[in-house]
Structure formats: structure tokens, C-alpha cells
Amino acid sequence: MISRRNFIRNSSMASALTVAKTGFAFSILHKNLQPEETLIGHGAFKYKVDKGWAKISVNSNPLANCHEMVQDSKGRLIMLGDNTHNNILVFDQSGKLLDYWGSGWPGGHGLSISKEGGEDFLLIVDCGWYQDRAGNWKSQAGQVVKTDLNGRVIFTIGHPRTIGIYKDNEPFMPTETTVAPNGDIYVADGYGSDYIIQYNSKGQYIRHFGGHNNSNREHNLVNAHGVAIDYRDKNKPTLICTSREENCFKVFSLDGKFMYRIDTPGMYVCRAVPDGDNIYAGVCWSKDAAGERKGDTGFVTILDGSNKVISNPGGNAPVYVNNVLKPTLQAPDRVFNHCHDVCVDQDKNLYICQWNANHSAPVKLTRV
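The structure assignment produced for this chain is given below.
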């Protein structure tokens, strides 16, 4: 069955070919592309930018930081933010707000979804960093909460010190979770002690790895901001862990054995989002030409099945020299501030959540 995106793209290609024969392709193309529409991306991964996709009122549904988004089995898009008026916002794909709930996660940061017995469940991560009403940053111990899609709490995973696997001087400020095929839950302690902690489906501890003190430094993680299951090899799924301060992903086996790294020089990547043969990720910051990290320099990066960067919507085109990726910067015409997450729908359109982006709603990128 042809997807809607492919139908539209194929129809557009056919129309363009017909018009080209009349000699008016250039004028027709620019007539169809409205002035407010911006195209970004590279190669076969180009997108139309829609910053007005989310149909919400800041008065009734205020936003602070839009951290992450997932799609449920019904096609709805579920977003987690850190405004406790409405931590969870639920949209349809046209951007209409369907529901909102949640008021207990001032550090709402990580969101993943799993299916059990035909039912969807959410794993919500409060990282512990939050702003008070005066705008001051505060910190507290983080937590991971499993809920159903209506917000009913199933269980909570608290500080690992309570089960004896953290020392008193090791902070716990989790940023992300992912769920393995057998139901095991992996928690990334990305703002705390940089461990990946593995629990079973009931929240019972199995092991932890990563952190800072391995004899082989490649096994360490530095700002383990994200964690995801990579199903691209169906016979051997792996764990993709973000080491953001090292500008890379590190790949582990599901039992915590380091395998290899994927370098993304110049890019402070958030969690990896595998979809089909590709990996998508938000880039929260990039570096300037002098190699210094700068604010408001985010974009999106897309990798192919061989882990090669093939498109950077909102960033400069990827450049490889002798099969080594050169540092990638934000494109001159800034589209994003700080990209924090990417959600991919069934038509390969993208929804981008941003941190520290002037309270803006998620941006839709429609693939063309």
C-alpha cells in the first residue's frame, strides 16, 4: 500500500514533469510554495516547516519547555513538558489538542511508550531540575513513573540509593527511559551519575553500567542524556546511549556490554529515535566555527542504516572527508533554538520538541 507521503510526492513529481515541458516549472514551483513555508534538509530528507502546527492557547495550555513526544497505537501524539499546569498534551496529527493532564512533574523531561497486552503505557521521567515561580533553577532527586494513557500511576522508580546501588555522593537525576522487547526498562541517569540502569518490567533492579569510572574510557558516558532500543537488526536489538558531551552515541548490548560508538562531531545530540532504517535525533546545541558551543544553535540530524549522517534539517549539510564526518553547525537561516526530541509519524513527517525556545510549541516538519 502506498503511503500518503509517497502518493503526494509521486503526484508532485508527475505534475512537475508536465509543467517542465511547458517551460514554466520555476514559476509554478514558487507559486505553490507559500512565502511562510520554509524547506530544510538535504538529499531525500527535505521538509516543509510548520511552526503553527499545534493548535493551543498559551492562556489555557501554557508551555515552558517541550521536552519529548511519542505516538500511541491510535496515531495520537503525546507530548511531555515541564509546565505543571499540563505536563502531558495529547494532539491529533492535524495539531488539534485532544487532551491534557499531569501536574506533578516540574522537571518533566523524558517520555517513552510501551505496549503490554494490547494496551499502551507511558514512562515519564522527572529529571529533578525545575524552575520555581520566580524563575530560579532548583534541583531535587528525580523519578521515573509508569502510567497508563489517562495518567493512572502503575508504579514509580525512585532513587537507586534506596536499593543500595548508588553511594551517598552519587546524584540521581534521570533523563530518559526505553523498554526492551522482553519488557525490561532502561533508565538513563543523564543529569546525575551517567549510569544506564536496567530494571525488569515490574521495576525490579537487574544491573547498571556506564558511569564515569570504567577502566576502558569508551565504556564511560558523559551526559547520558538519552537511551533507546535499536531494532534495525531484528535478530539482535541493541541499546543506543547518548554521550552528549562527547558528541556521540555509544552502542551497548542489552546486557550492558559496550560495542561501538557513533560520532556526531559538533553536535550535542539528545536521544536517538530509530525508525525504519534511519536514526533521528534532536541536536540541542552545535558549535560555532571556532569550536565553541553556542546557545540557540540546534537542529535535527538523520542517520542511515550504516550510521552515516545523511541530512541535517536546520543544520548545514553533512560533509565527510575520508569517511570521517566533519563538525556540523547550525545553518545560517536559523529555524530552531534547541531541538530536544524528534517524533516520526507513519508518513515520515517529524515533530520537533524544543527546550529553551521561548515557550514555543512543537514544530512539524512535513516531508516532501
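Interim note for the steering committee: The first strand starts at residue 38 and ends at 42. DSSP finds two helices and 31 strands in the chain.
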